[in-house]
Amino acid sequence: MLFVNATVHTLDPALGTLNGTDVLTAGATIAAVGPALPRDHAAVMDCTGSAIVPVFDASVSPLVPGNPATFAVVPADGRAFERVIWWPEQARTILVDGVARASFVPAAPSSPPPRLGVWIDATGHIHQELTADGRYDETRGGRRHAYRGAFRITGDRIVYRDDLGFWAYGRFDGEVLHHAGYTFTRAAR
């Protein structure tokens, strides 16, 4: 499949974001990324006005040849990553290992995720509460509600979107949460 004329957010530091670019897939992998790729016998999707962004569950791979063809085609309005994380239903197309999918959002668990509760950094300065409604509330140095927003946990990754508009990311390693240079452990219940 050939996706043409998109804004491609490669996540490759050497390439960055490429405008007016094509992505060619071959089975489960990305075969080529670049402008005006040959259309030799490929099904073509015109992505004018769209962005192509990697999607992830437990990991994310840059959009470069040889990596998995796992990405979403979303409106190119400057909010591509926000759309793919928070509003995946707005995607024009989602590929996971080269296969078109209706969604890449994991099914909701039947019971609350085990990672909810209060997490405290190693110094005790930051307390972060993760609640079942997908919200977080952070206390810093005793100042309650210093930061608030939404979060999403997928596998061992957590993505935060603060109510003020900024984004942050973290990773769980067993019962430890690594986030923004801090190490958190769950408070005793």
From TrEMBL:
Pfam families: Atu4866
An MF annotation (GO) of this entry: hydrolase activity, acting on carbon-nitrogen (but not peptide) bonds
Domain of life: Bacteria
Record's protein name: Uncharacterized protein
Species name: Virgisporangium aliadipatigenens
